[in-house]
Design brief:
Blueprint: H1 4-10, E1 18-25, E2 33-41, E3 45-52, H2 62-78, E4 83-90, E5 105-108
Parallel strand pairs: 3-4, 4-5
Antiparallel strand pairs: 1-2, 2-3
């Protein structure tokens, strides 16, 4: 994964061993799911990263918040020993609205290189 060290540093988890991957689940009944980046940490926390490339600040809608929470629920069902944290990574900042708190952390690409 590109910029692994800078992502972990920005998330303040540089000292925690981890494995990085993405996840695509194809489900004919439902729409399935795609997760851009999973950071599976040795402390039993998994950062579920949503990476967005928008020209303007990204706003979480009620529908998108529901979609993200259903992904977390599906992950928790398959691995009850882990804690899952939604993490926003974007070119632009996350809009602070009533649905933005679905993310436990939010970073912009600029923060990787500071």
């Amino acid at each position: 994964m590109a910029h692994k060290k800078s992502k972990k540093s920005a998330l303040q988890i540089l000292g925690i061993a981890s494995e990085e991957s993405s996840l695509i689940v194809k489900d004919s009944e439902n729409s399935g799911m795609q997760i851009d980046l999973l950071i599976d940490r040795a402390d039993d926390v998994v950062n579920v990263c949503e990476i967005k490339f928008y020209k303007s600040a990204f706003a979480v809608t009620p529908q998108y918040a529901e979609k993200l929470l259903s992904r977390i629920a599906a992950l928790e069902e398959t691995n009850r020993k882990k804690t899952f944290h939604l993490t926003y990574i974007g070119v632009t900042p996350l809009v602070s609205n009533e649905y933005a708190d679905v993310f436990q952390s939010a970073l912009t690409v600029e923060e990787f290189f500071t």
